[in-house]
């Protein structure tokens, strides 16, 4: 996949040495912007690429995030893409590699988190790494190796009904061990509370026991900041985006209130949503209850051969001048399973993604300059359909979701503002308040 890079974004005035410090491989596009957002907020200049760039031109930044669309690919394909990204990052001279996955640990018994992590360990010739999706600021905590989403365990959060990666076990040690050949252990909350030296000692003990991957507890942002120094010597980290907040300090970089500045928002506003998470379902309902113009995308009509994208664009075009419009395939778990039962899981997902991606491109061609996309797989399809090859990370809407400024061949002005929202992220009023942030 060809790709470009963003302009470096981050905080001026920090002390920076030459060269790229951190090289990141994200398994989907929303996760990549989530991670880049946390790094920028913590003081790093960040470049985000869409796919692996074709050239090895030097990048002037503290961190690079390579955005892949590998989360639900077959494990062998995900490994190949990740190793390609690793080789490109190594050519940039990065000092540490960060494999980023979802804060709800989206995967199946076959992977892809474990297989990709082990392939990266082999390529880097390292015998140990950590694994944690903890992002307490966004309600993702790990306690005694168990993942909580808000106040409930993972398998009670709605993730048990995920159409592609249903998560039915909150015990991450057990989940990861099922995917790995190496032994998986735990660095628990009591060790984390004692700080970096205790974490280093626990890592040394686990290595002696033959453990190669350790799930890391974290119940607060302070936990992640405490453990950051203990992770500085590991060639590879695997995590959600939360661990990122504790890493810039290892290079003398400090958090900064100056967010990356983007051009002022312009153009019409629209939302496309393919996520069926509980959070996105609430956001869709909130938007509609507030009087927002919304159109549901029916997968069965797509399967029947109806040009649903053309019909949706015809519906949206006269309404765009009146304010944001929402086009969504978001549905509850029962409806999703019914469609999957008729079309098959893969076919249903692919039909919806392709249709929403066509709609997204059509909206931008018609003058939408501010576009929200909900759902990881949906975001990947839309970014590709919009021919986006570079993004600058900007203002945060909610934890883990920033506005970005992207170059797109589909946009009449050549660029647009776009926000890629992981399905589970954002408050109920996210679709409404987001446009106020960029105005």
Describe this protein's structure:
The protein is an alpha/beta fold. The chain has two domains: 22-251, Rossmann fold; 268-438, Four-carbon acid sugar kinase, nucleotide binding domain (Molybdenum Cofactor Biosythetic Enzyme, Chain A, 3-Layer(aba) Sandwich), CATH 3.40.980.20. It contains 14 helices and 18 strands. It has helices at 29-41, 75-91, 113-124, 172-179, 189-193, 196-208, 221-227, 278-289, 299-303, 308-316, 333-343, 345-365, 376-385, 430-438, and strands spanning 22-26, 46-50, 63-67, 96-100, 129-132, 140-143, 146-149, 152-153, 183-187, 211-216, 236-239, 268-273, 293-296, 325-328, 368-374, 390-398, 401-407, 415-421. Strand 7 (146-149) and strand 8 form a beta hairpin. Helix 10 (308-316) runs parallel beside helix 12, helix 11 (333-343) packs across helix 12 and helix 12 (345-365) crosses helix 13 (376-385). It is globular, with a radius of gyration of 21 Å. 56% of the residues are buried.
